[in-house]
Amino acid sequence: MGKRSGARVIYFNSSDGRIWLLIAYTKSKFDNLPAGFLARLKAEVENG
Q1: Distance (Å, rounded) from C-alpha 42 to C-alpha 48?
Q2: How confident is the model at residue 3, as a pLDDT?
Q3: pLDDT tens, 4-22?
Q4: Alpha-carbon dihedral sign for residues 34, 35, 38, 43
Q5: With contact defined as beta carbons under 8 Å apart, do 44 and 21 qualify?
Q6: d(Cα 14, Cα 39) in Å, to the nearest integer?
Q7: Which of 12, 31, 35, 44 could form a disulfide with 20 if both were Cys (CB 3.0 to 4.6 A apart)?
């Protein structure tokens, strides 16, 4: 109730200077992503 539409963008800035777009989603679809999900995304970028 009272929320505005918009988007969130989650990115990862790696130590070698690259910026990785991990996920972009609308705020109306998810309020917050689980911390475990974000940690898994980060691990995949670091180890992938």
Answers
A1: 10
A2: 60
A3: 678 888 888 888 888 888 8
A4: negative
A5: no
A6: 14
A7: 12
Q: What are the structure tokens assigned to 5, written together?
A: 């539409």
Q: How far apart are CA 40 and CA 45, in angstroms?
A: 9
Contacts of 35 (CB under 8 A, 6+ apart): none
Strands 19-26 and 7-13: antiparallel
The structure tokens 């609308």 sit at: 26
Q: 21 has which bridge partners?
A: 11
Tokens for 41, please give them.
Answer: 């995304």
For the chain, the farthest-separated pair of C-alpha atoms sits apart, in whole angstroms, at 42
- Is 0.70 topped by the overall pTM? no
